[in-house]
Amino acid sequence: MKKKTIVVALGRCAFGSSFSEQKKSIINAANAIADLVEDKYQVVITHSNGPQIGMLHKAMTEFSRLDNSYTVAPMSVCGALSQGYIGYDLQNAIRTVLLDRGIFKPVSTIITQVRVDTFDPAFQHPTKAIGRLMTKDEADEEIKKRNYVIEENGGYRRIVATPKPMDIYEIDAIKALVKADQLVIACGGGGIPVLEQGTVLQGASAVIEKDLTSEKLADMLDADILLFLTGVKKVSLNYGTETEQPQDIITAADAQKYSTEGQFPITSMLPKIEASVNFVTKKEGRKAIIGHLDYARQCVNGQSGTIITA
Questions:
Q1: What is residue 161's DSSP assignment?
Q2: Last residue of a domain, one of 135, 160, 185
Q3: How much is the pTM?
Q4: Which domain holds residue 188?
Q5: Sign of torsion, CA 178 212 45 5?
Q6: Whether 110 and 235 share a structural domain
Q7: Strands 287-292 and 225-230: what pairing?
Q8: What was the pLDDT predicted at 1?
Q9: How many separate domains does the chain show?
Q10: Residues 27, 110 share a domain
Q11: CATH number of the domain where residue 27 is located
């Protein structure tokens, strides 16, 4: 019988915010993935890179300040670096856990480029703050380079666009590995945003919303399940209040209604809800689940998490 394909989107809770935290935290993620492999799912993994890409951008910026013969690393390069080093830790941890359970399965990280639209309105209205606080003089230099900055906490920070994902360039390689029954890590941090210019892929000064790219990948793979693993056990209405209401199942129609009412935080839960609705409404029989990293197996078995249905 053909294995069901599940795209697992790992949130920030899987990694921490430093090299040492990541090494420790990633073991939980590796065990969660191994549980799904044991249950005979074909697993493809995407992941967050929020703290990591910020750390890399800050480090490269400081390096350029110390030695002006080096330029600041573009966002696309920082994205590629984060995909590589998170993938390195994650694939090694998963490999170890699988082998300890008597399972041999190759695990590969694909440095993934994602096409964005040059005319996406997000480029005219950047919202994502990155890097360290800057002085007024440094901010002025960024503005001269045609970069956007905002005033924040007594200083200035650069902000970049968050365009929507249009296509995944390495999709054929990902499909080939999945067909060969290998475990794939791809589209880390939403993928490296690139603009197509003839035969050249030009890195864009942007960050793609990782949850939307996870949905794009799941759709292109025709996956059966899209699983978002987070730091909460269920999606809740009136979250964080005395009248909080955890939800077992939410229909796409209700999810859209709750989104309009402002029930879901814009920077955390809302993108997951939007991605889930997109995924389940494109084809009959699909399922999206949002739940806690520690209960991944239970989420897939219907014993935990929130299911979003068409």
A1: B
A2: 160
A3: 0.91
A4: 5-115+165-309
A5: negative
A6: yes
A7: parallel
A8: 66
A9: 2
A10: yes
A11: 3.40.1160.10
Residue 255 lies in a domain: yes
Rounded Cα distance between 28 and 6, Å, is 18
Q: What is the rounded CA–CA span in Å between residue 61 and residue 122? A: 24
| Residue found by looking up tokens 């400081």 in the block | 62
- Whether 75 and 200 map to the same domain: the answer is yes
* Cβ contact 276:226 at 8 Å: yes
With vertex at residue 19, the alpha carbon angle to CA 15 and CA 20, rounded to the nearest 5 degrees, is 90
Strands (E), the chain: 5-10, 42-47, 107-109, 113-115, 128-134, 148-152, 155-160, 167-168, 183-185, 192-197, 200-203, 225-230, 235-237, 245-247, 249-251, 287-292, 306-309
Do 145 and 98 share a domain, yes or no? Answer: no
CA-to-CA distance for 191 and 115, rounded, in angstroms?
Answer: 9
Contact 88, 58 (CB under 8 A): no
Q: Position 241: which residue type? A: T
Q: Are residues 153 and 223 in the same domain?
A: no
Of 310, 36, 98, nearest to 10 (Cα)? 36
Domain shared by 299 and 156, yes or no: no
Q: In a structure prediction context, what are the per-residue pLDDT tens digits for the chain, which is 310 residues long?
A: 688 999 999 988 778 777 788 888 899 999 999 999 999 999 999 998 877 877 787 777 777 778 777 777 788 888 999 999 999 999 999 999 999 999 999 999 999 999 999 999 999 888 877 767 778 887 887 788 777 888 887 788 888 888 999 999 999 999 999 999 999 999 999 999 999 999 999 999 889 999 999 999 999 999 999 999 999 999 999 998 999 999 999 999 999 999 999 999 888 899 999 999 999 999 999 999 999 999 999 999 999 999 999 9
Strand pairing report for 245-247 and 287-292: unpaired
> Is 294 inside a domain boundary?
yes
| Residues 176 and 64 both lie in one domain | yes
